[in-house]
Amino acid sequence: MIPTDRVRRLISILQTEIGQLKTFLIYAGNVQDALVAGKSEGLIKALDQQVGCLDELKVWEQKRRDVVVELTAHFKIPSANSSLSDLLPHLDHQAREELQNLGETCRTMAQQLGKIQRVNALLAEKSLVCVEGLGRTLIDAVLNPPEYGPSGHRPDAKTPPSILDRRA
């Protein structure tokens, strides 16, 4: 006997997780936009949104695991790490097909998210390198201010003196 209530619950949980992943993809895109635009306020907001979404995803992922564990116990499936694919052979055709589609959608979205996150990491790294370079330039300018001679020119300037320069 297939516990259809738990199977329906699993399908519902996966649909909710897919909705959360879609939202997370939007937030990851917002992070990317903020990094490209150099807008720290937008970056902070998008990262906060991502954290909140991740917290929600953790809750739904745990619910999914719990239902999968219940179903694998019901079907007496020996598995230390119960997975959706372990359950599929024990379900009716309609539930199996729906769960396969939902699982594939989750995997595809996770791959898209991985790509966006790698690009975001590279953008953040490039931004950090630029900020560090600017910081070093500013620190150097403060610690080693240019010195000007009596003529108003820097004595270490590499340009030849003009005809108006007293040294000429």
From TrEMBL:
<dbReference type="GO" id="GO:0044780">
    <property type="term" value="P:bacterial-type flagellum assembly"/>
</dbReference>
<keyword id="KW-0282">Flagellum</keyword>
<feature type="region of interest" description="Disordered">
    <location>
        <begin position="145"/>
        <end position="168"/>
    </location>
</feature>
<dbReference type="InterPro" id="IPR036679">
    <property type="entry name" value="FlgN-like_sf"/>
</dbReference>
<keyword id="KW-0966">Cell projection</keyword>
<dbReference type="Pfam" id="PF05130">
    <property type="entry name" value="FlgN"/>
</dbReference>
<dbReference type="InterPro" id="IPR007809">
    <property type="entry name" value="FlgN-like"/>
</dbReference>
<protein>
    <submittedName>
        <fullName>Flagellar protein FlgN</fullName>
    </submittedName>
</protein>
<keyword id="KW-0969">Cilium</keyword>
<keyword id="KW-1005">Bacterial flagellum biogenesis</keyword>
